[in-house]
Design goal:
This protein has 120 residues and is mainly beta. It contains no helices and eleven strands. A hairpin with a 5-residue loop joins strand 5 and strand 6.
Length: 120
């Protein structure tokens, strides 16, 4: 079983930055892909960024050049550095993981509870 706990959300003005963290515990290893997703009430959850088991990052077009995903394997922690934030980035951000090389789509096995990001 894998537990994921997000932190780092908050309120920020447009143009500002935030860094999200996702602490993973349990039976997670480097054989798990991990990713960040976000959801606005009334809309489907969308992928923001993910990182494969061999460290290859993938980004949604809407965040390319502004967000950066990284992972500290020693700490079992996933990060999302968010720069040049826009009001349309406002959402609840979720960390997810699965025993897959690549995290694609939203049908992953493990999810955190989410952290709210509000950009005004």
């Amino acid at each position: 079983h894998v537990q994921l706990v997000e932190s780092g959300g908050g309120s920020v003005q447009a143009g500002g930055s935030l860094r999200l963290s996702c602490a993973a515990s349990g039976q997670i290893s480097s054989d798990y892909c991990m990713g960040w997703y976000r959801q606005v009430p009334g809309k489907a959850r969308e992928g923001v960024a993910s990182i494969s088991t061999d460290g290859v990052p993938t980004y949604a077009d809407s965040v390319k050049g502004r967000f950066a995903i990284s992972k500290d394997n020693a700490k079992n922690t996933l990060y999302l550095q968010m720069n040049s934030l826009k009001p349309e980035d406002t959402a609840k951000y979720y960390c997810a993981a699965d025993f897959l090389q690549y995290c694609s789509g939203s049908h992953l096995g493990y999810w955190g509870q989410g952290t709210q990001v509000t950009v005004s």
